[in-house]
Amino acid sequence: MFIGAQVSLYPMTSGFVDVITSSLGALDPYRSDLRIETDDVSTLMVGAPAPLIDGMRDLFAAAARQPEHVTMHVTLSRGCPGEPDDPSCRCDVLTEAQSLPLDERIARARQAVADAPVLGVGIDLQFSLYVLGQDRHMDEIYGCIEFLKDSGTFFRSKNFCTRLRGDAGATFEAVRQAFLRFGPAEGHVTIDLTASANSPSLS
Amino acid sequence: MFIGAQVSLYPMTSGFVDVITSSLGALDPYRSDLRIETDDVSTLMVGAPAPLIDGMRDLFAAAARQPEHVTMHVTLSRGCPGEPDDPSCRCDVLTEAQSLPLDERIARARQAVADAPVLGVGIDLQFSLYVLGQDRHMDEIYGCIEFLKDSGTFFRSKNFCTRLRGDAGATFEAVRQAFLRFGPAEGHVTIDLTASANSPSLS
Asked: Does A88 contact chain B (CB < 8 Å)?
């Protein structure tokens, strides 16, 4: 399995470089567990979902603690055909998920969100889950939406995506559960995610 | 068919509101052909691929003509199950695509990029194409990558996405061709796209 993300942080301030560089320290606890490569458009992070999503969560929370409006875009992917197997991406939740019916996966996903740490940073987040390469992909999507609606982070449905609102801990845990527990364990699953904080036009 | 996008413009400047509002005029020629709804995270644009992608292209080009670093994220979607049919989204290229073999679709896509208008704005763009709900989705992805590599806009392959570079006219035309000519005409196809201009760390 190959698991990773392309991550971009967008501080809406002329001091955007400072916000980015000062937030990057939040990644330090995860650097030994992740492969990280940066270019001018995005940063590749490869590794298991625990450090991968904790890392992007803490990066965004660090930027969101500063006063400026900031957003982050993430392209998450697991099981992309053509990517090499990477032992550092091993994830027991994925193996477990394959053996459980949809109802049980929804229940465990909700529990994981309930158990998520509270970071004390309120954020908005919207994302789309894509289950590739199987005809019944919408069953998994609808199951995921059922989980999200009762997760405590659901804000509203939008065209093409689902909008969450809440603490960074709970919202990113909801994303991780969506990513891991829906779609076949060995399948190709991706997420297109946008997080936002401190927006002057918060609705 | 229901076709649309969630679009977000991110100017990396403290004057981000001014950059956004001054760029929005670029959408005016397309407003009568698109349904447009804005919230604090993204703007929904619904309509046929001609005004839809011309509109987001011109919006981004207008922002990129200003000196500040700016990025745009787009979640493009066609044929999402559960969305109502919308006559305003009708697209003859899609109908035609269904009847043509992959080689011919690649050739027509290349020609469309060659015929694209030159806007005089150089941009970087990376995107992922997702063909949902069919087991052979990677054949369409690989066909699309073959088209892109010889399109004149290809910059390099990245994990999870393909990086383009060039004039806004050609690069957005490449995205439109990828969106329309790969994956079944009636199928569910999405794109996760990031555009960037004036980056201080251009590689």
From this structure: no
Instruction: Closest CB to B159: pick one of A4, A159, A196.
Output: A4
Considering only CA atoms, which of B13, B92, B4, B122 is closest in space to residue B55?
B4
pLDDT band at A70 (very low <50, low <70, confident <90, very high): very high
Q: How many Å apart are CA B74 and CA A85, to the nearest integer?
A: 29
Q: Which domains does chain B have, with CATH numbers?
A: 3-197 (3.30.70.930)
Q: Which residues of chain B lie closer than 8 angstroms to A39, CB-CB?
A: 158, 203
The answer for A165, left when phi > 0, alpha when psi is -120 to 50, beta otherwise, is beta
Give yes or no for a contact between B122 and B183, defined as CB atoms under 8 angstroms apart. no
ipTM of the complex: 0.92
Distance CA B1, CA B167 (A): 30
| Residue A156 touches partner B, C-beta closer than 8 Å | no
CB atoms within 10 A of CB B82: 12
Is any Cβ of chain B less than 8 angstroms from the Cβ of A160?
yes
What is the total residue count of chain A?
203
Mean residue pLDDT across chain A: 93
Which positions of chain B have pLDDT values less than 70? 135, 203
Question: B117-162, pLDDT tens digit by residue?
Answer: 999 999 999 999 998 877 677 788 889 999 999 999 999 999 999 9
Q: Which residues of A touch B11 (CB under 8 A)?
A: 12
